[in-house]
Amino acid sequence: MSEISRRAALKALGLATASAVAGGAVATNAFRPQEQSQPSAATLQPTANVSSTGTFSPTATPATAPAVELYPFEGVYQAGVITDPPEAVLLVSLQVLATKPDDLVKIMQILTARSREMMAGQMGAAAAEDATFPPHNTGELGYDPLKDGRLSVMVGLGSSLFTRDGKDRFGLASKKPIALKPMPRDLVGDRLAGSTRLDGDILLQISSDHPLVNFHAFRDILKNTKGLVSPVWVQPGFQRYFQNMQPGEAKARGLLGFKDGTANLDVTDAELMSKLIWTGPEEPDWAQGGTYVAVRVIREQIERWDRLNLSQQEASIGRTKTTGATLDTKTETALPDYAADPDGVKVPLNSHVRKANPRLGEESDKRRMLRRGFLYMNGVDKSGLLDAGFLFQGFCRNIEEQFEFVKRNYMTNRHFPKQNTGVQDLDEYIFCVGGGYFFVPAGVQKEDRFLADALLLG
Amino acid sequence: MNLSVKSIARGVLATGLLSLSLVACGDNTATAPAAATAPVVATTAATTTGAAGTTAAGATTAAGTAQDATKAIQALNDLGKNLDETSAALQKNDLAAAKAAYKKFDDGWDDVEGYVQQFDRKQYQAIEEAMTPVGRELLRNANTTVATVTPLLKTLSDTYNNTIKQMAGTAPGGTRSATPTTKAAAISGPELDAATAKVDQYLKGKADKLVTNTQAFVTAVKSKDIAGAKAAYQQARFNYEGVEFLAESFTDMDVAIDARPDDFPKGENDPTWTGFHPLEKAIWADGKLDANTDKLADKLIADVTKLRDQIKSMTINPAGAIAGAADLIEEIQSGKITGEEERYSHSDFNDFKANLASAKFVYQAYARFVKQRNASLDADVTAAFGEIETALTPYFSADGVAVDYSKLNDNARKALAQKVEALADSFSKVNGTLGLNA
Lengths: 458, 438
Ligand code: HEM
Prior knowledge:
Order of helices and strands of chain A: HHHEHEEEEHEEEHEHHHHEEEHEH
CATH topology of the largest domain in chain B: A middle domain of Talin 1
Bound molecules: protoporphyrin IX containing FE
Number of strands of chain B: 0
Number of domains of chain B: 2
Largest sheet of chain B: none
Helix content of chain A: 10-25%
Low-confidence stretches of chain A: 1-63
Distance between the termini of chain A: 9 Å
Helix content of chain B: over 70%
Number of helices of chain B: 16
Order of helices and strands of chain B: HHHHHHHHHHHHHHHH
Strand content of chain B: under 5%
Oligomer: heterodimer
Largest sheet of chain A: 5 strands, antiparallel
Distance between the termini of chain B: 21 Å
C-alpha cells in the first residue's frame, strides 16, 4: 500500500482528522514528538535533602509534579516500555475475531489512531457530534482535552496472532519474531490450571496516572473495534511512586513492603537498552527496534507474608526492608559481593535477588531485563483471603534468553547456585496465576504510519 | 503441599532444628545435646553441605551477624566514650569541652549508624531522635545552658548504652531485625527442656508411624488392591502431614515424597514426579495399579524410611518446633488457594486435621510458658485451636474418614479459612513472646 492509500484508509475510517487535531494539541503541550520520552527529569534529579535519617522516610519528601504531563504517541519506540511508569495500569488481552488480513490492518489502524488521539489528551473523538447519532465521546472525562495523566497505550502481539493450533491465521507465520511463543505451561511453581488470564492475540498495556483515564481509553478502543476484537481478560493494577529519590534508588515498594526497582536497568542508558531491550538484526526487518514482554500475574499470599518475622522476610528477598540494602551491605545503592559470600551466609543463596541475578559477570549480565511492574488487588478469594499481588512485566530483547532463562535456570532450578539450594524462597509465598508472552513492535514515527504496518503491509 | 514450601522451614529450621540436626544427619545420631534454648545455633549450617544448602536463609541471620555484631559493639563502645566525655564536661560546667566532645560523637555516628540500623531500626530511630535536641542545643544554639543540655544528653546516653547492651546480648547469634526494645528474654531451664523432650518424642513417634502406615499403603498398592490402598492412603498421609515441617528441612526428601505435579516441568506426565501424589492419581483418577505404580510404591517406602531415619537423628529445639508448628498451620491454608492439595482423593480434611494435631501438640507442650508471660495470648491460641477442631468435626465420618473437600461450599470454606487465619495470627506471636527467634 502506498503512503497515500494508507492515509486514505485512515480517512475512510473517519480517524485521520481527529489525529491531526491531536497532533496540534501535542505540540502546544511543548514536548518533542520525535524523541521518545525519557523518564521525567524530576525523578532523576539528585536531591540535597536526604539526610542520614532520611532513609526511613522517603515518603515524607514532598511530591513534585512530573515534568512530563503527556507522553507523545510518536517515537522510535512505543511509549510504555522505558517511559516512566505512571500510577495506574490496565492490562488487556484481546482476541482477534476477524479472519482477513485486511481486518488486521484495520485493527492496527484503529488502535494507532485512537491511541494517538487519546495520548494527546483528546479523550473523545475530536469530530463534532451529530445529535442524530450516538456520541463519539462517552463523556465520563468531560469534553476538555486532558493536559496531563501520562496516558500510553502499548500494543503487544501474541504468538497466536501468527499461528494458532498450527494454522497460519493471517499469512504472517513466516514473519513471527524469532523468540515469540505462548507462555510456557511448564514453568515450575506456576498455578495456571483453570486460569482465565492467559495469553492473547493482542496485549494492550494501558497506563496513566488515573484508573478512570485507563478505563476510558479501553472503553473507547472497544467501542471502535466492535466485531474485530473481543477482550479476553483484563487486569487493573496500581502503584505509588516516591518522588525525589536519588539515582539508583527504587521509587516504589511492592505489596510485600520491599523497595522495588533498585537493581533495575537504567532506562536512560541508551547503549544498555539497545543491548538488552531493543531487538536488532537477529529479528526479521519489521520486528527490529521492538522488544518482548513477559507478563506475569503473580498472586501473593499477603496474610501469610505478614505473619513472617522481619528477618524471615528479609532473608527471602535478600535485602533489608527499610533501607533496601542487600543483606551484605548498608545502603540501597551499594553492590552486593556474592563472590565474598559463597555460602550465602549474608545474602542467602535462595533469596530472590540472588536467584534472579546471581551476578556472575557477563554470563548473568546478559540475562537482565527491564522490570515495569504494577500491583493488583482483586478483592478477596473464596476463602476471604486477599486476592492481590504483582503484575510483573519483564521486557527483554530475547524472551527465551532473558526472562525464561532466569526463571528456569536460576530461580526455579533447585540446584542453582549449589546442589540442593532449592527454588527461590519467595516461591513459598507467591505463585503465578496468569500472563503471557508478547512482542512489542517498534514505535510509530510518522503520522501516516500505523503500528506494525511494516509487518502487515511490508 | 508444594515443593517450594521449604522456606519457612529454612528460616526456621536452620536456626532451630536443622542446625543441630545437620550434625546428626551427616553420619550418626550422636548429636551434641541441643543448646535447646539458644535461639540461634547456626554455625554448623553454613559449613555443612547437602541439605545445609537449603538452610542458607536461616543461617544468614545467625552467622552473618555474629562477626558483625562483635565489630559493631566495639565501634559503638568506642564512639560512646565521647558521650561520657560530654557528660563529664557538663558536670564541670564546661560547655566548650562538652561541645567539642559531642561534635566528635556526632561526626563519628555516621560511620557506625549502619550497624544499629541493621540491628534494629526502632532502636536506630530512637537514637536519632535523642540526638536531634542535643545537636540543636550543643552544636547550634550559642546561648544554650548546661541545665538544658544535661537531661537531653542523659536520654541520649541511656538510649545509646541500652542499644549496645542489647546488641551484646544477642551477639553470639544475633537477631538482625528483631525488636530488642520489647524483646523478652529467652526462656530456658529444665522445665523447658522437659517440654522439648516431649515434643521430640511425639514427632519421632509420628515418623515411626509414618513408616508403618506407608508400608501398609505400599503393600495394598503392590497387591493392586484399590479399595485397600484408598483406606491406607489417608492414614499414611495423616502421619506425613504431621511431620511435614521436619521433612521440609530436607528439601530433596520432601520433593521426593510430597510434591505436586505443578512443581515439575512436565506436570503429571513428568517421570521424576514421585511420592504419594502420583499414586493418589493412579488410585483415584486413573483407577489403575500396574508395574509403574509398583515402582513408585517401592521408591516411596524407601524414601519414607530414609526420612524417618533423618528425622530421628534431628534434635528438636523450642524455637524451631514452634516455628514449625506455625508453618503447619499456614500449610492448611496455602495449598488450597488454587485447587486442592489432595486433588485426586479430595482428602484435604485429613491433612488439615494432621497439621492441626501436630501444631497443637507442640503448642500444648509450651503453653504454660506462654501463659506465664502473656495469659491472653495463650487464651487466644487455645481458643482458636478449639474453634477449628469444632468446625472440623462435621467433616469426618464416625470412623474418622474425611469427607470430600471439593464438596465444601463457599460459605463453609470461608468460615474455616477465617478460623485458621485467627489461629495463625495469634500463633505468629508465640516465639517472640518466649524470647525466641527462629
Ligand atoms: C511477586 C513477585 C515478585 C516480587 C515481590 C519481587 C520483588 C523484588 C524485590 C523486592 C527486588 C529487590 C529490589 C530491586 O532490585 O528491584 C527484586 C529484584 C529483582 N527481581 Fe523481583 N520480584 C518478583 C518477581 C520477579 C520475577 C517474576 C522476576 C523475573 C523472572 C524478577 C526478577 C528480578 C530481578 C532480575 C531483580 C534484580 C536482582 C538484582 O539485579 O539484584 N522478579 N524483586
